[in-house]
Design goal:
alpha/beta, 49% helix, 369 residues, binds flavin mononucleotide, eight-stranded parallel beta barrel
Length: 369
């Protein structure tokens, strides 16, 4: 019998290899950012190089409203990836999430693949990570605190991945009473607790429940970027598990598109909301912030650079930040505060979705005061 840690380690290694080699992005589904239009200003009346991209969220001052999403830990390769991202975000005064720390909570020998992040990034914004399903089955406040301590985190993310779990034959599909446990962790922890999805989005109803449960922030991680049904499709195919493979294919594009999910969360929870899921360039980031996101995050775009080293991650982050600056120049916003207030036009399927879900056009382009 294989030890559970070995199985999780293998699964984590599979995830990285599959994401590097196969096409794991949404196919027909899109983020909806193509329906969001920033209004070009021929008279920006500001100087591009004087634009201030800094912003404060979760008590941390970011040099730009960007962080690298939760990805990995637990293996040697993961440690290298984490170290490369950490060095880059430290230098640029940004932030990052580590991947699920379950494997190291259960086996402290593997802690270094996570704690390396704090060694390489003593001052960056670091987000610890545990899985929602583990809070149902065996984890509680103690393990959540352990995850935070392991990386001396600024915040803890609790990830929700019902789609992925539902496509994995070994998946953890008991989500009963999870909210109650999230509430307990949010009350007891000294750092902010952020609840994040992993690529299928968070609806208005769930965002309101998370707000009532006392969490400090929501990361929508909507559909349009990395698909976990796709990742599991490839794992199922490799072991000739026909039913799981079929589930992965059928549910490949399942979820709430990121732009719609973002507006749903911003309008239903009085909390900082992070936009993620298919954020691929600085225009996406600028659009997300204009719709009320406090920060934006991307994960997949940093995987390959991180396998090469911190210089590549830094380059990718610098391009992204440079694009945000350019978009801000072109809408005449010289601060993040101003970017939150620029006019936004919402068209197409996203406008239709939001209307059918009860959000009026005159309000959905504005964050709560
Ligand atoms: C290789 C890989 C591993 C991931 N592992 C985790 C994880 O352990 N915990 C988590 O909360 N999210 C994890 N995610 C999900 C991301 O944090 C993010 O929510 C999702 O990939 C959508 O963003 P993207 O389209 O920019 O990739 C992982 C993503 C990738 C690509």
């Amino acid at each position: 019998m294989k030890h559970l840690d070995d199985m999780i380690g293998e699964r984590k290694a599979d995830h990285i290899e599959i994401c590097l080699k196969e096409d794991v992005q949404a196919r027909q589904a899109t983020t909806g950012f193509e329906d969001i239009h920033l209004v070009h200003k021929a008279l920006p009346e500001i100087e591009r190089k004087k634009i201030d991209l800094s912003t404060t969220a979760f008590g941390y001052k970011f040099s730009a409203p960007i962080f690298v999403g939760a990805m990995t830990g637990g293996t040697q390769k993961a440690a290298k990836i984490n170290a490369a991202i950490a060095e880059a975000v430290e230098e640029l005064h940004l932030g990052m999430g580590v991947g699920s720390q379950r494997i190291a909570i259960d086996n402290p020998k593997l802690e270094q693949s996570f704690s390396v992040v704090r060694e390489k990034a003593p001052t960056a914004f670091i987000v610890a990570n545990i899985g929602g399903p583990q809070l149902v089955s065996k984890y509680g406040v103690k393990e959540a605190k352990k995850a935070v301590e392991m990386v001396q985190a600024n915040a803890l993310a609790i990830h929700l991945n019902p789609l992925q779990e539902a496509v994995q034959p070994e998946g953890d599909t008991n989500y009963s009473n999870l909210l109650q446990n999230i509430c307990k962790v949010a009350q007891e922890l000294e750092v902010p607790v952020i609840v994040k999805e992993t690529g299928a989005g968070i609806a208005a109803e769930d965002a309101a429940m998370l707000d009532a449960a006392g969490v400090a922030g929501i990361d929508v991680a909507g559909v349009g970027g990395t698909s976990w049904a796709a990742v599991e499709y490839y794992r199922a195919k490799a072991r000739q598990d026909v039913f799981s493979q079929r589930l992965g294919e059928t549910f490949w594009d399942w979820g709430i598109p990121t732009a719609a999910s973002l507006v749903e969360a911003v309008k239903s929870a009085n909390l900082p909301v992070i936009a993620s899921g298919g954020i691929r360039n600085g225009i996406d980031v600028a659009k997300a912030l204009s719709l009320g996101a406090s920060l934006a995050s991307a994960t997949y775009p940093f995987l390959e650079p991180a396998t090469k080293g911190s210089e590549d991650v830094k380059k990718a982050l610098k391009y992204l930040v440079g694009e945000v600056r350019n978009a801000m120049f072109l809408v005449g916003a010289n601060s993040i505060q101003k970017l939150h207030q620029v006019p936004v036009v919402v068209t197409g399927k996203t406008a239709e979705w939001l209307k059918l879900r009860g959000f009026q056009p005159e309000v959905y382009a504005r964050r709560k005061a």
